[in-house]
Amino acid sequence: MSKDTVTITDNRSGHSVELPILSATQGPDAIDIGRFFRELGYFTYDPGFLSTASCNSALTYLDGGQGILQYRGYPIEQLAEHSNFLEVAYLMLYGELPRPRQLDEFNDIITHHSMLNEALKSFYHGFYHDAHPMAIMVGVVGSLSAFYHDSTDIGNERHREIAAHRLIAKMPSIAAACYKHSVGEPQVYPDNRLSYTGNLLNMMFSVPCEPYVINPIAEKALDLIFILHIDHEQNASTSTVRLAGSSGANPFACIASGIAALWGPAHGGANEAVLDMLENIGDSRNIPAFLARAKDKSDPFRLMGFGHRVYKNYDPRARIIRAMCHQVLEQLGDADDPAFELALRLEEIALQDDYFVERNLYPNVDFYSGVIYKALGIPRNMFTVMFAIARTVGWVAQWMEMIAETNQRIGRPRQLYVGPGQRDYVAIDER
Ligand code: CMC
After folding, report:
1. Looking at residue 207, what DSSP letter applies?
2. Is 165 noted as a catalytic residue in this protein?
3. Does the CB atom of residue 221 touch ligand 1 within 6 A?
4. Could you tell me which of 189, 266, 404, 407 has the fewest CB atoms within 10 Å of its CB?
5. Could you tell me if the CB of 372 is within 6 A of ligand 1?
6. Predicted local confidence at residue 382, as pLDDT
7. Rg (Cα) of the chain, in Å, rounded?
8. Considering the entire predicted model, what is its pTM?
9. Catalytic residue (one of 112, 366, 424, 429)
């Protein structure tokens, strides 16, 4: 019996199966259960995937107990301090930090893919002005598959790369157009002289009749938030992209499925929900009442922006964003922002409360990001769209990694069937 195996014995039949242990470079190793069903006749059961590694990945490592997050081995703190969004995007797609010429080329490519097909403009007009921008994003990004279907052979590595570039480049243009549609202003074309986040701000907030000056702190804060949101290993939206992609679906359609999964309040939609919650709390005197609701199992209310499936320690992204909140608010002359004050107080009180302490519930990435978005003038219903722009890098990197695998197969989970046993059809007049 090899040391690197786990033996599982079925006490019903007495049969045993010896399963190999696969080694991780960091973090828990995994038991390969691929033969489990064939040898023992059972499925494994793990709703919510609490103990299931769904794939190999060399992109992102996170240790929830220690509060560690790394992209391609680089600690998030170092990338946040020294890098920028497009450099990290390059790192995620190609595995290594770029040399200066490679980064220049990459910036150039992304810049030159940022325009949208003019025909796409008419899609926006199909939505009411008050449509949620995430709904528009799902539709418009999905519709890109119609523009690039024949030219995207996912078996061709170069085609996959071009699809990735297009997605990363066009997301800010698509997102800004959603915003412009909601406020009834004309769409603004991308400006190739601007940075990735500068361009986004310009496309969102400039109008044809007057000059718009990009605030450097807004550009920097957004770039930082985008770095922090690039990837988070096999979360719900990324797993959705991988599952959709495993069938060989068009990459633009796969990313649209990721956007749909991200929208939920338990995932990326939490950033919008945090500000709603802070507004409802209104005053720090009301915090105890809201905490009591969050602890009450008969009340569906949860403290939004708190808790995480993997982090059982402070989310390192939240720590970085919280520090950036101070900088942004001070430089924008909004140092006494009541939402930030309330968030800090809420965190302080919750982290002393036995309920949150015992369950290791800490602020997550969404707890403070909304405070920054709000200070930048980004409306609340656009918060999750901001998340989607950044996460597109992770989604496409994960999709490319999956398609390039030699033994890539369609994702097809099984189930524990708990419905009725076989029964005979009863004619309608006899029921
Ligand atoms: N407020 C109150 N109680 C909570 C919270 C919360 N925010 N989060 C978890 N709990 C409790 C939960 O009721 C459970 O208690 P008990 O053991 O007594 O039943 C325990 O903590 C464990 O929670 P869980 O629901 O089993 O944990 P999960 O891993 O299934 O859910 C989560 C993780 C993020 C969905 C959840 O913590 C949550 O709903 N948080 C609020 C929404 C949020 O902030 N989401 C953003 C996540 S980070 C960014 C992203 O993924 O996009």
Report:
1. B
2. no
3. no
4. 407
5. no
6. 95
7. 24
8. 0.94
9. 366
